[in-house]
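This section describes the prediction task in plain terms. A model, or a person checking by hand, is given the sequence of a single protein chain and must write out its three-dimensional structure as a string of tokens. No templates, partner chains or ligands are provided. The sample shown here is typical of the held-out split.
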Amino acid sequence: MITTYRIEGGQMRVGDALPQLLGPDAPRGEGALPIWIDLLQPTLQEERLVEQLIGVEVPTREEMQEIEASSRLYREGDVLFMTAPFLYGIDTGEIGSAAITFVLTPTALVTVRYATPKAFGVFAARAAKNPHLASTPDGVMLGLFEQVVDRLADILERVGADMDRTSQAAFKAAKSQDRASRKNDVLKDALIALGQVGEITSRTSDTLLGLSRILAFIAAEKDACIRKENKTRVKTLTRDVRSLMDHGKFLNEKATFLLDAVLGIINIEQNAIIKTFSVVAVIFMPPTLVASIYGMNFQVMPELEWVAGYPFALGLMLASAIAPLWFFRRKGWL
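The expected answer:
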């Protein structure tokens, strides 16, 4: 799907009629061509239309997924090609990362993507109300980056709050006298929540790392498509990305600590259960031995004809059960 954004008469015009821009009757002049061409899951025909309009080849999906730095960030003439993974699906619960390519020319920005991060829709809505946000191709790209950074900051803030609630619930359950099933449910929920936190923070860090590389790349291109008035925005974005990367690293370390703590609590609970079974087994071991001895079918056993033999055996079994219990309590093991 192709969506075009162009400024006409001070207003943002959004459409998908790209073929009309290539015909013999195509409009000419300022505002005739789109500032931003957004390709969402494009077909081969749509890619060819865009290539015909901007005069350069659009990377294929296979090329976008390559991990070599030279394949993700490069320049051909006056055109910059930049690819980075972007987080998506936080609100829907289907969390993932997808590579998005930015093709920046002196006259237009082309984005090629196969997923829809929320920041893209938010920026498009903002640009429709404030056309000055999309007055230049590099301004559109930096506006998208700023929206992505704002979105990632909100996500990390939400993740931090979720971790705080999870840790409080886990430690509260560890100190409570609730039933074991209730504690197990709370600790299980904590493990699931921390797993999701780890997934989100790792993908967020991946996105921030990709943005950091793109910003370093365009900052090094002194004579490229970034206008002088936008250089300050690049520096500000770079600082914001670095601060978020540090915060994401802190959240990762905190999540690891909480995961170790929850697993430690679970181990303590399991050890307590195993200790109980061990104590019960030790307590019943001596009475079982006594019962086994007097359950043997030897012909000559003096106690068989002894009137007090049965009470004696019962008393011996009771005493052999009480003795280990008393010993364990004295040692402080119970």
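For orientation: Helices lie at 44-54, 61-64, 69-72, 118-129, 137-175, 180-220, 231-294, 309-331.
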